[in-house]
Amino acid sequence: MIVTRPKPLEEVLSFLKGFRKILVLGCRGCVAIYHVGGDKEAKALAQKLSQKGFEASSKSVLRQCDPRYLKDLKEELSQFDAVLSLACGVGVVTFAEMFSEIPVYPGVDTLFCGAQVERGVFQEKCRACGNCLLHLTAGLCPVALCPKGLLNGPCGGSSEGRCEVNPNKPCVWEEIIKRLEKQGRLEELLELFPPRDYSLAEGNSPREYVHGKASK
Amino acid sequence: MERPVSKLQRLLEEGKFVFTVELQPPKNASKEEVRKKLSAIKDFADAVNLTDCSTASVSMSSLAASLITLEEGFEPVWQMTCRDRNRIALQAEILGAYALGVRNLLCMTGDHPLVGDHPQAKPVYDLDSVQLLSLVKGLEEGKFFNGKPLKGERPCFFLGAVENPFATPLHFRVLRLKKKALAGARFIQTQGIFNLKKFERFLRLAEEEGILEKVFLIAGIIPPRSFKMLKYMKERVPGMDIPDEWIKRMASARDQREEGIKIAVEIGKALKEMKGVRGLHIMLIGWEEALPEIVKALR
Ligand code: SF4
């Protein structure tokens, strides 16, 4: 899921200075599940903005990352000076691309593709690098979880299972080795991992995928 | 057998016990400073390693410092990390370095920017150290990293890599060393060694895997300058394994510098005795004055 964090109120207020009528636009996707930008949060933020002297109201759509759920907003938008979106970056951009007349501002910071590992604790698990290699690494992703993104790890700094860059985090390569060993697959790591293909990742933006076709 | 491309390679192939010394290029633009540091080392080393912004902190480029080293009539080991350059920049610099006379190349992954002096920097790591070794090998065999032919003169280096015998998991360290040898490393310089027993175990495992026939292993020494420094390394530097006996000795020493040199010499002598150790790599971390005494005692 896409993990997000609300921006501090002061920052949001600094964006909205000079506007009067604000629509706080929530999303019922990832941000709602994690209580960052769903119906409730949009409503609460609109209330706060009203206390600060704005004329604010709130609304949520099923998914801001899907133009089908945004298109019906068109008429309503004419009543507002600006939109504060509580969707992830994908939602904000999709909205901005559809409605070029009205200013839209992000109400959250989009952090990463991650999992909620315990209540309120989110961890990055995937970098969306475009060439999945989890079949080689016992299902754990060194691209996302090793700070150096090493494919032939671990580096010389792993120590008792800890990462040299973030000693409070595990070294994912040690975990990969442990798992492959348990599965009797350790010799697979003797192969030299070829380098990553960045033309499938951040080396090629914007990435586009047409269903049924090779992505690039 | 092919002719050695560098003095370091020749000495190792002739079976000589070598001394390499690590030099950190200055954090300024002074050629004079590089020269000065070199002249303090020159008579006590067969080659000098120029670090590539170690601990991810800016200093003069290791390639520039390698060229100054050459100008001074001395042999550089050019250290190159994957931290700051993608495969285009890596290849460009490797070709240029060869054209200018650099012959020893040490390939490393490199410390992460987060531990350095510009933590906001973009970490590149387009390749890792193993892939960098195979990139160099490819250039030597006449192909760019994309597989296209390199026409005209090819570079040819005495290629090295590093290994930390104390990082975990221990048994996999040996396999990773094997990987580096397969990828093209001909010599290995290790992290500073204090735990001799553990290192010996590592050596024997490496021998069993047949790695010591493929690479020349140069064992690392860090002369402890003070009790404080040794304790800091034990507690703070990841992957360092420092047994308490050395810490105790430094703590109770009357003259810590003298004791530090003594310890370095003791460790050096023990390493020299071990089968498979072909030289010593001395990392002074700014303590250049200690070098003459240590090398004289070990030669
Ligand atoms: S210690 Fe492990 S996770 Fe951390 S940078 Fe090194 S290989 Fe990557």
Explained architecture:
The complex is a heterodimer of chains A (216) and B (299). With 216 residues, chain A is of the alpha/beta class. Chain A contains eight helices and seven strands, in the order βαβααβααβαβββαα. Chain A has two domains: 2-111, Response regulator (Rossmann fold, 3-Layer(aba) Sandwich), CATH 3.40.50; 129-209, no CATH class. In chain A, strand 6 and strand 7 form a beta hairpin. Chain B is of the alpha/beta class and 299 residues long. Chain B has a domain at 7-163: TIM Barrel (Alpha-Beta Barrel). In chain B, 42% of the residues lie in helices and 15% in strands. Chain B has an eight-stranded parallel barrel, surrounded by six helices. In chain B, helix 4 links the parallel strand 3 (76-81) and strand 4 (104-108). The mean pLDDT of chain B is 96. The A-B interface holds A 147-162, 164-167, 174, 177-178, 186, 189-190, 192-196, 198 and B 83, 87, 109-112, 114-115, 123, 125-131, 134, 145, 162-164, 166-169, 172, 175-176, 178-179, 182-183, 191, 238-239. The complex binds iron/sulfur cluster (SF4).
